[in-house]
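Training component of the fellowship. As part of building independent skills, the fellow (R.M.) carried out the full modelling exercise for a liganded target. The chosen ligand was heme C. The inputs are recorded below so that the supervisory panel can assess the work.
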Amino acid sequence: MFNSRTVSVASGGLLAAAALLIAGAYFAEPATAKSMTSGETHEDNLVASVAAGGRLYDDWARETAARKPRKVHPLYPEEGLYADQPWQTWRCVTCHGWDYKGSEGMYHTGPKYTGIKGIAGKRGAEIGEVIEILTDGKHGYGDMMDDQDLLDVASFVVNGQTDVDQVIDPVTRRAKAKPAASSVYFSTICVSCHGADGRMMDTIPPVGDVARTDPWQSLHKMLNGHPGDDMPALRAFSLPTILSVLAYTQTLPSHDRLASISRGGKLYDDWAKEIDRRFPEDPHPSFPTGVEIAVGSNTWRCVECHGWDYKGNNGIRGIRNLAGAHPLAIEKILTDETHRMDDFLKHKDMTDLANFISQGQVEVNEFIDPTSKKAKGNKDTSPEYFLTLCATCHGEDGRAIRTMPPLGRVADNSPWKVLHRMFHGHPGDYMPAWQASMPPTIAKDVLAKLQTLPVKK
Ligand code: HEC
Ligand code: HEC
Ligand code: HEC
Ligand code: HEC
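Fellow's submitted model of the complex:
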């Protein structure tokens, strides 16, 4: 594992180190620094210390495996985005930004606005002065980070900040480098963890998306690595080299939108089955007591609370209001006190669910009459669709798959469930999702056809 923190500059007490630094000895005598760790030169140590500091700036609690603070940072504005996630308010980046410009940079507006100044003014400052700021009553890191961490993060502030406007166009967000059709660096370094197209890790968005929407964050992570993880820090390479990697990652693909929506539909149906794990033992704390649910179902399934018609179930409101909403707003709901889905699902799963809720749910009354439960289509208009698309697996009478009840019966009893599964597929199974390929009129006709199939096994 690449852990520069064990080889970085000072090994003695903070005060001694800071005194040296304040005295200006930090850059003066290579011999002084060299004597501190075996065989490493001062410059090697400095680069490693700066990179470690960059990771601490990003998320020191994750980098040092410290316990996350439970109180909101006193300097964080009450109405800020992260006020209900206390530990986030202790990350330097939350207040000062990936571009180090605080309220004068990307956080000058938008949900991450804090009105707090950047740290760019301290580039080249005295290390001791920065340590003093961090340990003063306002920042309060003296009790949370050890001497080495404070020294590293201060080294980053003083020696590690990139002048981002020189390297990233603030308007187009493009790296100021030649667009690259390939990258030796990406294909040999990043590929092992992120995959050839940057989409392999399901705990984070595709690398291409991050590089396009937040190139400052990408650049910071490339230079310093990822807190608490093995991702290498590229800081030792030249800046133009690193920019060429950034430019290349900006060309990498996003997740496939339609595949994401239909997978989200399957997660809504039964997320445990789709990701192949078990639901928690205890019933969902928000599930109303005294309500019976069907055998084989579970109170943790979204559909048990929000319904196959998306209009709410068991006395709980529906999700219709969120159709068309920004997926990030939906993801925030999924991590709220009621849901806490981030305890169970990965980033990719949350994205898929949010995409389904935003783009995949339909107004079911357009397909199904809510009183008679009859499909609003014609069984005789498009029979070829059922016969070619469904009968191959389900049989011409809908009874060929012996592990499920006859399709005709399900279509009569729960047409909304059938519509949902026809559109998004069956969780944990290979059945295709038909929403995107089937125009609504055809879908209604197929559903009408299913309601004519035999209901007995
Ligand atoms: C909750 C918000 C918040 C967090 C988190 C935070 N700061 Fe600050 N920081 C501030 C505020 C507010 C100021 C301005 C204080 C003032 O003007 O007295 C500031 C000032 C600074 C300055 C001086 C900038 C200048 O030009 O005067 C530096 C350097 C700095 N912070 C570094 C850090 C580092 C490193 C971390 C993480 C270890 C960090 N800050 C975490 C809010 C924060
Ligand atoms: C040894 C494995 C490894 C290598 C090699 C690696 N990374 Fe990472 N990377 C990670 C891990 C782990 C994370 C954090 C994942 C998480 O938060 O769940 C990460 C996170 C990131 C992020 C942040 C995404 C986000 O939204 O949090 C970016 C950007 C990134 N890597 C880019 C790169 C680039 C570019 C390269 C090649 C220069 C690279 N990584 C090489 C393991 C690696
Ligand atoms: C045990 C019941 C329960 C389960 C299971 C459940 N929710 Fe909820 N959900 C609620 C309640 C109660 C609310 C409204 C109160 C709230 O927002 O805290 C809600 C609200 C929502 C909202 C916002 C609706 C609006 O109009 O504001 C969305 C979106 C949502 N849930 C999605 C999901 C998804 C996706 C899942 C599955 C991963 C899920 N829920 C699982 C109970 C549940
Ligand atoms: C490639 C095979 C395949 C095709 C094609 C296919 N299905 Fe399925 N379908 C399955 C499997 C497998 C299941 C899950 C069976 C189980 O629960 O054991 C399933 C389940 C279903 C269910 C869920 C029934 C329930 O118990 O709730 C519905 C509804 C359904 N299919 C409708 C359709 C329709 C409509 C079509 C054509 C538009 C279709 N399927 C095409 C394989 C297929």
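The panel noted the following from the submitted structure. The two ends are 59 Å apart (CA to CA). The pocket of heme C (ligand 2) is lined by residues 185-186, 189-190, 192-194, 201, 203-205, 207, 210, 218, 221-222, 226, 229-232, 234, 245, 249 (CB under 6 Å).
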